[in-house]
């Protein structure tokens, strides 16, 4: 077969014999033409290469020279600079913000239009801001969010000013503001002047039903960590991406590295073939209901459930709460607490199959994940039977189960890496600022905050607060542009996406019903 091809003939067949042609003596004209061609080529070549000298010999002059090059020119790479915190030497001195941090960031992107498109969940930025697309955002609209806000944050001339309204839970406000500071270190000069109201409580507060009808006013824009289908709060990355000092959860970038290593310790097929959950059940009755599914002498629902006592865990040095050490079961359960739970991303990062008890709330990235692709949906009204079916199904379909777990962990590692978290914040705040119909001002009583003011003399929680800040510190300005924000969903495409998600959940329910019907017939 190979010898019959044209390519094979070039290698295997001998060329036909032809008599040698009589060699002609080159003419003066031919030599002149050849010289002109060579000279033109060398001149062209020298226009884009580094300079050096070579000698060209001919019969008339043995010392002709031409400036050419040894190496092609390449763009001089931009050196990534690192700028440490400029902390005062003494704690008795008042820490001030530096004035010499770069005002802009320089990138080495030849063509910014070729930047990678952001992950698909960035499209939800457009949906979250849609309530103000027509009306815009006035000062009065922003001020009406004050009653629910924890703090008022203003960016003016690339500086951050904060006015606190009420205490936050633990250090949520501190690490959220710290995260925004790191965004400004990564993309200095990348954010316009703006004002936002931020609520660090768990549940969304701006009910969509209060802003319907012909005489309805625009809803107040309120930033928080989660939303649901009945509210209009603007969803923002939660504080734990920069660390949760109270319970010794490292910054997300470190967690991703640790979990990736932890995933490789035990192969999926060698893990415990049950559904695992460990957490605080006392924050919500839904979690308390989950505990009924734990294994007993009389019943095994394929679940292994453990209560987390954070006070005792803290006293014992958090030895039993390392996220990277909890990827030892084939299945891990995610269930909401009082609202959405920070634990979601840590559970999805394990390449165990996430068994997601039907959630009410969503964070900024979850809306683009699909059931059966990235997780397995579990009924909220019949948890125990649903969990047992999910585990039995996965143990009988190991290849598909492993694919689901791997898809989720890959999503976390690749599409939720910190670069994309910062890019999400960058685009959300920029798109939000475009809607403002007023000039942002620094409110009376606001304090200028920068990374130095927040971190240099940070104390408490046995040093973890400052440790996590140093660990999550952006070392210096980025040398690449943010990813390219994708356009809004086409209404029909969004409807099809949501329909597919709902159909996948219905399909699992159908399989589950058939499973129990077949067992009851036995």
From TrEMBL:
**UniProt keyword annotation of Membrane present:** yes
Q: Which domain of life is it from?
A: Eukaryota
Which residues, if any, are the signal sequence?
A: none
Is the Transmembrane keyword given for this protein?
yes
Q: Where are the transmembrane segments?
A: 28-48
Q: What UniProt keywords are attached to this protein's entry?
A: Membrane, Transmembrane, Transmembrane helix
Q: What is this protein called?
A: Protein LURP-one-related 4
Domain Glycosyl transferase CAP10 residue range list: 190-439
Q: Which organism is it from?
A: Hibiscus syriacus (Rose of Sharon)
